[in-house]
Design brief:
Strand content: 25-35%
Radius of gyration: 21 Å
Order of helices and strands: EEHEEEHEEHEEE
Number of strands: 10
Distance between the termini: 56 Å
Helix content: 10-25%
Length: about 150
């Protein structure tokens, strides 16, 4: 899909603005006028509860970060994802987006809310000591137990 037909991208701000749409994209003139009056020139989408900017286009849900990436760099290669470098899902500045594999994207996750140590891979054992472990290429590596 040619996103430039529907949006104006501000790569510095990380926003998409709706363009005026053609009459041929609507069932009748009344719906076309209504849509353009309501949406054209306004920021596209809304911030969803998981933190991503999303919108609907032709009854399909679209993510702003993916659209911004594709407008700047072309289609996303199969097997890759768009990762938010700073882990802020609403920050869609082009400088904050990068291509990543699923594993790279998972490594860039925030510390889980249930984490008691404040560090990834560190957990408290029932005896009160701490255990550290990491995953490297799918292999779990035990680093050690610590007081």
């Amino acid at each position: 899909m040619n996103w430039n037909d529907y949006f104006i991208a501000d790569f510095e701000a990380g926003t998409l603005t709706w363009k005026q749409r053609a009459l041929e994209q609507f069932p009748d003139e009344r719906v076309w006028k209504s849509w353009n009056t309501k949406n054209a020139g306004k920021i596209a989408g809304c911030l969803e509860r998981h933190g991503y900017w999303k919108m609907c286009l032709f009854h399909k849900r679209c993510s702003s970060h993916r659209i911004i990436w594709e407008m700047a760099n072309g289609p996303i290669p199969k097997g890759l994802q768009i990762d938010h470098i700073d882990q802020n899902r609403s920050n869609n500045r082009l400088s904050n987006l990068r291509l990543a594999t699923n594993a790279e994207n998972a490594r860039n996750r925030r510390v889980q809310i249930t984490n008691t140590s404040g560090f990834k891979g560190v957990s408290r054992l029932p005896n009160g000591s701490w255990r550290a472990k990491i995953n490297v290429h799918g292999r779990k590596i035990h680093i050690g137990h610590f007081a």
